[in-house]
Queue: 4 jobs
Job 1
Amino acid sequence: MESDREQLLEELDAIDAIYPDLMDRKVDDSSIILIKVPQHEHITIQVSFPQKYPSIEAPHILEVIVSNSAKRQDLYDIKYLQNLFQEVMDSNFHQGSVCFFDFLTELDAVLYMGEEEAANDESNDVGRVNRLELIPTDPFEGWIASDPITDRASTFMAFAAHVDSEAQAFAMLERLKTDTKIKKCAHVMSAWRIKVPSERNKDQVITYQDSDDDGEAAAGSRMLHLITIMDVWNVMVVVGRWFGGTHIGPDRFKHINSTAREAVLRAGFERQA
């Protein structure tokens, strides 16, 4: 059986291979490292690995450093980030199992930073603006919402809409994401099923169906399976999850499906022949 040290070194080697050039091992025994947060490289964290990690004790966040070059650096509360990162670390840790890679993956989901929201507000993408002109200004126009479900500080809420083309579906989704509260979701998962008459042969139909997990593995495909067994068409359903820092395991899929089904039914969809 591998020792704690052997498991730690193997884990760090694997992370170094996946995220090259992001990690700086400060001491020979790798008990303290500096690593840039993947996808958020302007944030560096200093992490201490206890001698009894992973058998008994979780790693400790010693320091959070925000680069001076980060946009709107004043938006960052370092103390808040340090506490948040430690909560995410603790929620991923289970005695006997390494957790640092899962921790880094989860950070990408929970970090919705102010400069990203500011960037989204800028008109720096003409194509995106043109797509948004296809739908009304109100982000929620055309959407029917479920009631929210809150479980261990995570909140789930679904939205469903009638759509007649993939272009319309994507444009409505883009507009929905401009809402301030939706921007703060850790995940905005979606699924859609659309069928339209063929332009060449009006007696034939063309179908489109797909999904997007948005970082919540397998969530989108489960939503697509839901609307498939409901046998509804020309529908897009979106579920937003606001993450509260605590993992809730498989229960998250129950809440995703429950809110999605409620939104689809509220939107008036019925089984089609």
Job 2
Amino acid sequence: MKESLRPGGRSARVQAAVHAAVRDLLRDRARSELTIPAIATRAGVTPSTLYRRWGSLQDLLADVAVERMRPEGDPDDTGSVRGDLEEWLEQYIEEMTSVPGRAMTRDVLGCTGAAPRQCAAFLRRQIEVIAARGAARGEPALDVDAVVDLVVAPVMYRLLFDTAPVDPAWWRGLLARVVPPAG
């Protein structure tokens, strides 16, 4: 996104209308059929508003994807860092391997703006919450970077570039390198 938007007022209304228009149009037609003029018409704004605010169709799609990828809350608390990470990873992988998840990932990666960094920040924040909970329970410190580099990065690589499945046994093996199973 080119400019920082105010949290309220016309800017927020335009953003909400445009995001809704993109989501509606994606339900009705193929992604390849989306155009700035079609989105603008559906949102009730001019195409120049979209170009001024987002710069390109790809950056607009990335902004919509980032909003949809924003976590709705903290990861569930299962009582252990290992349990929290397993549950969080299972949900994350399920979302990212779904057809909409893959499309949102492509939208984010194809943009020229800050969307990839925003998604990385969302992900890191989720892991930091799990780490802080574990520390409060007296569990060994969780290395957030290790989780990102040794677990999430290979999962995303496989999701984006490989045909091998992202199955539970595989990602649990990755997780065991960072947080050994209890017992």
Job 3
Amino acid sequence: MLDLEHFLPYRLSVLSNQVSAGIARTYAERFGLSVTEWRVIAILGRFPGISATEVTERSAMDKVAVSRAVRRLIDQGRIRRQANAEDRRAKHLFLSDQGQSVFDAIAPAALAYEEELLGVLSASERRQLDALLDRLLEASRA
């Protein structure tokens, strides 16, 4: 019988949703961003110039959800799309000045939230968690 409370995919999903909801309050209240929109901004803040397809791959989010978020962020002036000089069909995404300001304002709050969550773990447990998550991520890709 499936013991849902101990089923890893279920537990990871619940944890992910709770963690996302916790930080989502910060960017929803201050900037009117959805979880998907913040993730797009965060990814472009770290990897400027990637395509929407690459955003989808890096985030493991639904392609349609990413596409909608990208469209909304462009319409809001928070990101900009630039055609590739060699392949006009390829579009690169960048944070606009407004998007960079949003990223710069939210990133410290996100890091503080992460630190608060991880505060229940010792330094050794944090390293172990990081290693375990890496291994599970690698196994999930196989």
Job 4
Amino acid sequence: MIPRLGEEEAQAAADAVRSGWVAQGPRVARFEQEFAALVGAGHGVAVSSCTTALHLALVVLDVGPGDEVIVPSFSFIATANAVRYVGATPVFADVDLGTGNLTVDTVDAVRTPRTRAVIGVHQGGVPFDVAALREAAGRWGVALVEDAACAAGSTAYGRPAGAGAALAAWSFHPRKLLTTGEGGMVTTDDPAWAARLRRLREHGMNVSAAERHASAQPVLESYLETAFNYRMTDIQAAVGLVQLGRLAELVAQRRALAARYHDLLATIEGLVPVRDPEYGETNFQSFWVLIDPEYGVSRDEVLAELAVAGVSARRGIMAAHLEPAYADLAPGPLPVTERLTRDSLILPLHHALTEDDQDRVVGVLRKLAG
């Protein structure tokens, strides 16, 4: 993934530095407002990463020791880690083969009386079925947190991914379409949650540092609860504001490149590329391909041949339950997760990718197919 950063972002960052206000301040506030409007949320709370966004979402829900939170193993390990940060137990559920996402059935299969929340991931930018999972979560009486780390620019049921979410967590890591270098956001329609999230990211203070410094009179702050230092800087937000203006163009470009990959791969038996779900559109933050047995070559052999050809592809999305950090858990069978993580790879897809680059990638895959 090559982030699209140019002179406008460099100028915006320089302007923030020259302003003398580089910590969380007016640019962060503006970025929060504009990002929340973009994704159809009432409030945005900028934080230092999507991982911290997930952590704060669970804190706001008062999830803690003795509680279980259902998560996909088929996700970056931060999704499960956030559950442990609050002392709760992550419970791994399997995913759908086509989307790589949780479904009502896979969540219900591992749900227990201790289940307090579900973290649904819009994996690789592919939206999960928000209508179905939100309805089920409400019926079960459990909270649904949306891990939208990869989903800026994706849609579900004609609305931006994350619109209508009780709590959604976003990432602005360089691998994402919209980047601030590092950084994240929590979006919510609940003003009370938004107010608490803002306190939690800033040591639990009842008034932000920016508000304190802007006041003409001395402000004696108080600290309402034990909290965290999860703030975003104005330098990052300045970059993010420029990036917001690029998002629609980047999504359109990625979708065009993905469509071309689909056309090129259609004649190669045994390769199944990720596609839009019937209820939405993906931003193609990641373009993964599942290798079926009839292809005749293993995923690792494909990665090795692509590397020889100078193509930087990556293994498919990880399975957290197979990592040493989660060896103490004993999840039930996760056959789809294990197949996806074993038999899929992520092909190059970024703004600098050319048609010649795509032809070279697919040429290797076609040659390996014999």
